[in-house]
TrEMBL record:
Protein name: MALT1 protein
UniProt domain Ig-like: residue ranges: 3-79, 103-183
Pfam (any one): Peptidase_C14
Lineage: Eukaryota, Metazoa, Chordata, Craniata, Vertebrata
InterPro entries in the cross-refs: Caspase-like_dom_sf, Caspase-related_regulators, Ig-like_dom, Ig-like_dom_sf, Ig-like_fold, Ig_sub, Ig_sub2, Pept_C14_caspase
Keywords on record: Disulfide bond, Immunoglobulin domain
Length: 252
């Protein structure tokens, strides 16, 4: 009769020195034996003495783990491989003893200026137990294919310009990175006189139309980061544009 794993271990993302437990549970028709393995880079080895359902760990370095479950008939199955990601530098003001596993951003993306056709990479990272999942947004719109810590666009277009931010979430909640501007384009073109006049006319029309100034502040010196202001700016800005306003959005 096959062995069935009823509880898989889960990946975590934790600060160095953090103590936690990986769990594996299984069912079978005979008594079961457990053995944990770890892999660092290309080296995979058995963990001596790690023969219980629970594996206590003190985080030291990023590694992969799996558990082998045997029965008395020499049947064996392996659990899923899970990643224990260890951050050597944690966010200031985060005492691990007060942390309950909710996502905490430890690396924010930075503003980028990229030429058209060149690659774009934005990066973020968050701690969390279980390890957070990631979702990137541009101008408040969800980017379906960008669900990793690193956002990667191989060949950029002008339409890739905008304000980017990422949401890290797990079963304990969510946390958002800072919003950053990405500028895609070539060098500044020198406009001929006729185009100067057209640009001046366009600016004059915009200046005499309906203009909405939206300010969303997500960073306070003596208060935790908020989520709603960024969403409100994106959603309200979209609505006002449909109403004929020229929208200027300022974040942080």
């Amino acid at each position: 009769t096959a062995i069935a794993i009823t509880e898989q271990p889960v990946s975590v993302s934790v600060p160095v020195g953090y103590s936690f437990v990986l769990r594996c549970r299984a069912q079978g028709c005979t008594s079961l034996q457990y053995q944990w393995f770890c892999q660092y880079q290309s080296d995979c080895h058995l963990i001596p003495g790690a023969t219980n359902q629970d594996l206590p760990i003190i985080a030291e370095q990023t590694q992969l783990y799996t558990c082998r479950v045997n029965d008395l008939h020499r049947n064996a199955v392996f659990s899923n491989w899970v990643k224990v990601e260890v951050h050597q530098c944690v966010a200031r003001g985060l005492p691990p003893r007060l942390w309950q596993g909710e996502p905490v951003i430890v690396l924010h993306p930075s503003e980028q200026r990229v030429e058209v056709g060149q690659p774009l990479q934005l990066q973020c990272a968050a701690m969390g137990v279980p390890a957070p999942s990631y979702q990137w947004y541009r101008n408040g719109n969800l980017l379906e294919q960008q669900k990793r810590k690193k956002l990667w666009i191989t060949h950029t277009k002008v339409s890739d310009s905008g304000t980017y931010l990422c949401c890290a979430s797990n079963s304990h909640g969510e946390h958002w990175t800072n919003a950053v501007d990405v500028h895609i384009g070539g060098g500044e073109a020198i406009l001929p006189p006729a185009e100067h006049l057209q640009l001046f006319h366009l600016v004059f029309v915009l200046a005499t139309g309906k203009i909405a100034l939206l300010v969303g502040n997500n960073r306070y010196q003596h208060h935790p980061n908020l989520v709603a202001p960024l969403r409100d700016v994106f959603e309200l800005g979209h609505l006002l544009e449909h109403l004929g306003f020229q929208v200027v959005s300022l974040l942080d």
